[in-house]
Automatic annotation (TrEMBL):
Classification via SUPFAM superfamilies: Aminoacid dehydrogenase-like, N-terminal domain (SSF53223), NAD(P)-binding Rossmann-fold domains (SSF51735)
Name of the featured protein: Methylenetetrahydrofolate dehydrogenase [NAD(+)]
EC number(s) reported in the record: 1.5.1.15
Keyword Disulfide bond (UniProt): no
InterPro entries assigned: Aminoacid_DH-like_N_sf, m-THF_DH_NAD-bd, NAD(P)-bd_dom_sf, THF_DH/CycHdrlase, THF_DH/CycHdrlase_cat_dom, THF_DH/CycHdrlase_NAD-bd_dom
Main location as per UniProt: cytoplasm
GO biological process: one example: purine nucleobase biosynthetic process
Enzyme class: oxidoreductase
The species this protein was found in: Lipomyces tetrasporus
GO MF, any single term: methylenetetrahydrofolate dehydrogenase (NADP+) activity
Family statement drawn from the similarity comment of this UniProt entry: Belongs to the tetrahydrofolate dehydrogenase/cyclohydrolase family.
Length: 321
């Protein structure tokens, strides 16, 4: 039986569109409970130093969701040449619990520098060196006692939570192996989303093919997931061939001109788009079983979850006054 001829009769499509809000709602009570236990409103400061419409939209989402969930959010629009000084001030401000920067700022390596200027104790997006290192090496805690969880970048974490919600993760398997047997295609290898996402999914047991504009890399923990963390190898394969054997296809191409070819989608695959542009054509529903057109609301929810985790981690530090 084909996906377009299910029990609903002629023309029926065996695909369900899942909205990001449905996934975000799963974590709403957890976050509200965390604020209630804290006994105060955590304060998040966002720095906007560009004219990117996507960054502005993300800032608007952040502010609206923070208000709805009981957080304080302050958007500070500053000149990019002065941004470093403002970040340092916020690092030292005891009234500020978390900080985020809406990238790109300079659009080059200076953005990576700014990520490290931000205090790791207030880095809600998990971009500080220690968090990035832990992610790639599959280290999930900051301390030997395993009381302080490492912070993961918000959009990759949002995509993990969406895959859990959709049932792609096999919860019967041991933690860390729950994507064993899954093949995943990611069309994006940005340092902010695509690459860390490939690492996270491979560390959970999947074989991940990461497609960029000029190369393809394979992320995997070896045959039988024998390695503790993933390894990366350059491979010479075609998108069409890999996509047709993939259980999950994730796109993040920031261009209205890019469309993932529906003919490359395996029957019953899960398709997720995290770009602000629509990377899939409407007929994606004739091949996919589950389709998530955007992830922004889950990303913002993970941002607040990370903020509560930072506050919890800081309260557990042995040298805390």
């Amino acid at each position: 039986m084909s996906p377009s001829s299910g029990s609903g009769g002629a023309g029926a499509v065996a695909c369900k569109t899942v909205l990001a809000s449905s996934v975000a709602n799963v974590y709403a009570n957890e976050i509200k409970q965390g604020i209630q236990e804290l006994g105060r409103k955590p304060k998040l400061v966002g720095f906007l130093s560009n004219a990117d419409p996507a960054a502005r939209m993300y800032a608007d989402w952040t502010g609206k969701t923070c208000e709805e969930m009981g957080f304080m959010f302050e958007l500070r629009e500053v000149d990019k040449e002065e941004l470093e000084d403002y970040i340092v001030q916020a690092n030292e401000d005891k009234d500020v619990d978390g900080i985020m920067i809406y990238f790109p700022v300079f659009g080059n390596r200076q953005d990576q520098y700014l990520q490290q200027v931000l205090s790791k104790d207030k880095d809600v997006e998990g971009l500080s060196h220690i968090y990035v290192q832990n992610l790639y090496h599959n280290v999930r805690y900051l301390d030997d006692a395993k009381t302080q969880k490492s912070i993961l970048p918000c959009t990759p974490l949002a995509l993990v939570k969406i895959l859990e919600y959709l049932g792609v993760y096999n919860m019967i398997l041991p933690y860390g192996n729950r994507l064993y047997g899954k093949t995943i295609t990611i069309v994006n290898r940005s340092e902010i989303v695509g690459r860390p996402l490939a690492a996270l999914l491979a560390n959970d047991g999947a074989v991940v093919y990461s497609f960029d504009i000029d190369s393809v890399q394979k992320f995997a923990r070896g045959e039988g997931i024998r390695l503790r963390s993933h390894r990366v190898t350059d491979v010479d394969v075609k998108l069409a061939d890999i996509a047709l054997m993939s259980d999950v296809i994730i796109t993040g191409v920031p261009s209205e001109n890019y469309k993932f070819q529906t003919q490359y989608i395996k029957d019953g695959a899960v398709c997720i788009n995290f770009s602000t542009a629509k990377n899939f054509n409407p007929d994606v529903k004739t091949k996919s079983s589950l389709y998530v057109p955007s992830v922004g609301k889950v990303t913002v929810t993970m941002l607040m979850r990370n903020l509560l985790r930072l506050i919890n981690n800081n309260s557990r530090k042995p040298d805390r006054n």
